[in-house]
From TrEMBL:
It comes from the Bacteria. Keywords: Coiled coil, Nitrogen fixation. Pfam families: Rop-like. This is Uncharacterized protein. The lineage of its organism: Bacteria, Pseudomonadati, Pseudomonadota, Betaproteobacteria, Rhodocyclales. InterPro entries: Helix_hairpin_bin_sf, Put_N_fixation. Belongs to the UPF0437 family. Residues 1-31 form a coiled coil. It comes from Zoogloea dura.
Length: 65
């Protein structure tokens, strides 16, 4: 199991990735119908980023308890 500092660093990195994915999805939505073909790809990337972030936060909470 990773130490607490490594878990915090990983969660911070995943948070940045999830935030960027959210912004990419937002930007794409504002450009519609331009690049509509990218909707599934960008949405999947945002979903995966947030799924990984939530798992890391859960792991961090368990390690901190």
């Amino acid at each position: 199991m990773e130490d607490l500092d490594a878990l915090k660093a990983r969660a911070k990195k995943l948070n940045a990735q999830a935030t960027q994915a959210k912004m990419d999805l937002h930007d794409l939505s504002e450009e519609l119908p331009t690049n509509w073909e990218q909707i599934l790809e960008v949405a999947q990337r945002a979903y995966d980023a947030h799924k990984n972030l939530m798992a890391a936060r859960k792991e961090l909470a368990a390690a901190s308890a």
